Each structure stands twice: as C-alpha cells, then as structure tokens.
Amino acid sequence: MQCLPIRLRPGDDLRPAIEAAVAAHGGAGAFVLAGIGSLDGASLRLAGAEQLLRLDGDLEILTLAGSVSADGSHLHMSVADAQGRVWGGHVTPGCIVRTTAELLLALLPPGQLGRAFDPATGYTELVVRPPG
C-alpha cells in the first residue's frame, strides 16, 4: 500500500477527480482514508433514497471516506452549511470543489479491489482479492 496525499482545485468535480487521481497514479484500487475542504454545492444519495439530495451554496467537507476501483467507487461524505446544518450520504457527481479539497488516498496493487453484484444485498459490492 502506498499513501498519496492530493489536493483538488476549485471547479473540480469531487468524485470524478478522485477516480482520475487514482487512475493517474497507476492504481486500479484505493481507499480514501480522509478528506476535508469546501464545496460549491453537493449532490448526495441518502440511505435508501431513489432521488438525490441537491445542496446549493458554500459547504464544508467534514468527513470523506470510501473505496475506488476500476469497477466503480463507493464514497461517503458529510458536509455542513454556513448555519452548521449537517448532511451525509453517498457522493455522486456534482460535488464541486469551491476552494480546495485535501485528501489522503491509500493506493493498492492492481487487481486487489473490484466490485460485483451481490445477490444477498441487491447491490454491486466491494470484492477484495488477495495481493499477488
């Protein structure tokens, strides 16, 4: 495992930018260990919800964590607005960096992480393969 600190810039779309950073560093899989920063709006999918929650305006990223693989990503985030209200959920495209996003990624060897449909949950879930 290799740790990689990165900074995303204003205007970057958080989820695709994280996926691109992992791909650019030769990693086919990674975990987002931590993330902080600010957003100019966010789109989150709440637990069990079909519709996305769209939050407009300035937001602070309080937490950001998840997994990234060539088969897809699973990222969770909590954000707060200027009044201190907090929302959290699945990160979807449309979370635009306002000033910065600072992340720590743990890059894993190619082929170690993947995603596959799990009939027990009905979702595409993480598959962890032994290194090698």
Automatic annotation (TrEMBL):
PROSITE patterns in alphabetical order: PPC
Domain PPC: 1-129
CDD domains: DUF296
Top-level taxon of origin: Bacteria
InterPro entries: PPC_dom
The protein, known as: PPC domain-containing protein
